[in-house]
From TrEMBL:
<dbReference type="Pfam" id="PF03990">
    <property type="entry name" value="DUF348"/>
</dbReference>
<feature type="signal peptide">
    <location>
        <begin position="1"/>
        <end position="35"/>
    </location>
</feature>
<dbReference type="Pfam" id="PF07501">
    <property type="entry name" value="G5"/>
</dbReference>
<dbReference type="GO" id="GO:0019867">
    <property type="term" value="C:outer membrane"/>
</dbReference>
<dbReference type="InterPro" id="IPR007137">
    <property type="entry name" value="DUF348"/>
</dbReference>
<dbReference type="GO" id="GO:0009254">
    <property type="term" value="P:peptidoglycan turnover"/>
</dbReference>
<dbReference type="GO" id="GO:0004553">
    <property type="term" value="F:hydrolase activity, hydrolyzing O-glycosyl compounds"/>
</dbReference>
<dbReference type="InterPro" id="IPR036908">
    <property type="entry name" value="RlpA-like_sf"/>
</dbReference>
<dbReference type="InterPro" id="IPR051933">
    <property type="entry name" value="Resuscitation_pf_RpfB"/>
</dbReference>
<dbReference type="InterPro" id="IPR011098">
    <property type="entry name" value="G5_dom"/>
</dbReference>
<dbReference type="InterPro" id="IPR010611">
    <property type="entry name" value="3D_dom"/>
</dbReference>
<keyword id="KW-0732">Signal</keyword>
<dbReference type="Pfam" id="PF06725">
    <property type="entry name" value="3D"/>
</dbReference>
<protein>
    <recommendedName>
        <fullName>G5 domain-containing protein</fullName>
    </recommendedName>
</protein>
<feature type="domain" description="G5">
    <location>
        <begin position="209"/>
        <end position="289"/>
    </location>
</feature>
């Protein structure tokens, strides 16, 4: 090898050595930079509601992580740890967005922000005391949603009178119908409620339930026969003869009885059906004059026709005390309480006379009475109430015939 060739080889060797040295410096610098970058990244666990994500970040604070992830965190949200907290490797960050809830208590409304999960948690968070009688909607276990309406009606006392039982009940119902449904009260067909189902309740209201029963009774009853008087000119005056014996009939009466809270309020006859026909008793009464009697009539009965008398009039019924229900002339007034009959003193008004009584109308003098003497008459009325209304009064009586 010549000297020149040696010098050339040596020069090439130095150039390669310089190149390798430079490459090594560059590689070392890159590795150091990468190691530094790696050492500044931190692993963070981010939890959003029930969603979790692991991220690698070079952020210094929680606020920078929030910004990096573009999370719309609001002041009322739940964020742990706070935005100012420094990021550490392996840190857990939890974010729970708040919800806007429209709360109504006894008609008063307000808007509340909360991160509670359920209605029950929300009420606890708001320090609201709820009794078992209060009404909350939605229910306690309902999951809260953004813009949800939560309504609370506080319970108040109501007096409940059910038939003959009375008690005080706490309720949050606003109407009578809802209150009774809440109490599980059932009704019969005829029961009555006061106030009505749609009426509103308030503190110390009173709800009354009248238990109504309608009972139908079927009663078999004997119907007394009537007595018919027939004038008979073949018989002497004062004589009587039975032409036909009477026989009682049988009827079936159907009554409707109405009871309110166990007390009888009314009883009404719905139907009367005859199952055995009765037969009237027929009596013949003589009208034939005895010798010499006709001439004497002018001084007695004949002289009474057309006369007008002023009398004291009282009233009686077929069921009066001491009454037998059969008149002095044999008329059964139990079976015919609506007949126009008066009791008279036969010495003043002859029995059988047809009369006109002022304020009463036409009638027949067909009865007598122990207290009916002189200018006194007793008028047959269909019921005690009508008799009581008549009372005692002065009236004019005209004898027709």
């Amino acid at each position: 090898m010549t000297v020149n060739e040696f010098k050339q080889d040596r020069s090439r060797f130095k150039s390669r050595k310089s190149f390798l040295l430079a490459a090594g410096v560059v590689l070392l610098s890159s590795t150091s930079a990468y190691s530094y970058y790696e050492s500044t990244e931190k692993t963070v666990e981010v939890k959003i509601n029930n969603w979790e994500k692991t991220i690698e970040t070079r952020a210094d604070t929680v606020a920078e992580v929030v910004k990096e992830l573009k999370l719309p965190v609001k002041p009322k949200d739940y964020l742990v740890p706070s935005k100012q907290t420094k990021i550490k490797d392996g840190m857990n960050i939890e974010w729970k967005p708040s919800k806007q809830i429209h709360l109504t208590i006894e008609g008063k409304k307000k808007t509340v922000w909360t991160t509670a999960d359920t209605v029950k948690d929300f009420l606890k968070e708001e320090h609201l005391s709820i009794s078992k009688f209060d009404k909350v909607a939605p229910s306690f276990n309902q999951t809260l949603q953004n813009h949800m309406n939560v309504k609370i009606n506080k319970a108040f006392p109501v007096t409940l009178v059910d038939g003959n039982r009375k008690k005080t009940v706490w309720t949050a119902s606003t109407t009578v119908g809802d209150f009774l449904k809440q109490q599980g009260i059932t009704f019969g067909k005829w029961d009555k409620v006061k106030p009505g189902f749609d009426d509103y309740l308030h503190s110390n209201s009173s709800v009354k339930i009248v238990r109504v029963k309608k009972i139908t009774d079927v009663v078999e009853k004997s119907k007394a026969f009537a007595i018919t008087i027939q004038k008979d000119s073949s018989l002497m005056e004062g004589e009587r003869k039975v032409l036909q014996e009477g026989r009682n009939g049988t009827v079936i009466n159907t009554y409707e009885s109405v009871y309110e809270n166990g007390r009888l309020i009314s009883k009404k006859l719905l139907e009367q059906r005859t199952i055995v026909e009765g037969r009237n008793k027929i009596i013949a009464e003589g009208t034939k004059k005895r010798d010499g009697q006709f001439a004497a009539e002018t001084a007695s009965t004949a002289g009474t026709r057309g006369r007008e008398l002023l009398v004291t009039a009282t009233a009686y019924t077929s069921n009066c005390s001491g009454c037998s229900g059969i008149t002095a002339t044999g008329i059964n007034i139990h079976s015919s309480p609506n007949m126009r009959i008066i009791a008279v003193d036969p010495g003043l008004i002859p029995l059988g006379s047809r009369v006109y009584v002022e304020g009463y109308g036409y009638a027949v003098a067909a009865d007598t009475g122990g207290a009916i003497k002189g200018n006194r008459i007793d008028i047959l009325m269909p019921s005690q109430s009508v008799a009581a209304q008549w009372g005692r009064k002065q009236v004019k009586v005209q004898i027709i015939d």
